Amino acid sequence: MSGLPRPAPTGPKPAWLKIRLDTGENYRGVHGMVQGLRLHTVCQEARCPNIYECWGDRTATFMILGDVCTRRCGFCAVATGRPRAVDPDEPDHVAEAVRHLDLKHAVITMVDRDDLPDGGAAQVARVIRAVRGRNPACEVEILTSDFRGVECPLDVVLPAGPVTFSHNIETVPRLYPTVRQGSRFERSAGLLRRAVRWRGSAARPLVKTGLMVGLGESREELLLTFAALAEAGVEILTIGQYLRPTLAHLPVARYYPPGEFEELRRESLACGFRHVEAGPLVRSSYHARRHTESAASAPALDSPFARP
Ligand code: SF4
Fold it and tell me: Whose alpha carbon is nearest atom 2 of ligand 1?
């Protein structure tokens, strides 16, 4: 880990962000399996605060298409640069990891691969099929890049049969230039809208997005963003606290107390989402199975925004 920027001294984190560092048997088992199968996880690469809990519960989110991203978002600890070639063994290795952990809901994410003509869509579909093929009882949730807005990737990825299609909107439109260089709010919202349209009247995949707070957004901007996402037909929303990974990343503008997350959860639900998970340590994949199950059983709300 030498050469990495020192973790950011943001002053004492509020008590509600304190976590228990439990590297017990399950944690070590997952760690060894990930290394043994030459896999990457967003748990490690993004320095997720929930890694001790999730790996302790023998669950993890696999990050495919390598550990080097072609973008440089101001909030993200994943390495940036020239990615390596696509690993042909990756689909089998992810499928084996899911079998080893006996997962019933596997979350798979990816780095942005703007260097590939299809943005990595074909490999994403291969991984989904390999996991479902080897683990018929396991549902797959796929958390993708924006595929640079290229039209066809959804026609490649969605036929592979994910139960939930996810793409993180991350923040409000005004902050995109500083928080998500190389991305566009409308492009990301457009991808989510197209996934809803692709699904048509079918029940799957459910469509999901995630957002961080604490980067300088206003409450009004958040409510407008929630409304735009509900209008796009998104059913599942996660809202979590931005945490600065290193000094090289954006500073935390504010820590939201748990009570404020509860307010955001209620206000966003009123926009028409079928499930909202909101809390300081909430991440898109944190207890993801619960998000999907809750949304699947929730009646489609008669929202002022949701289309018929
Ligand atoms: S919340 Fe997601 S990314 Fe974080 S440790 Fe858990 S599975 Fe990994």
Answer: 285
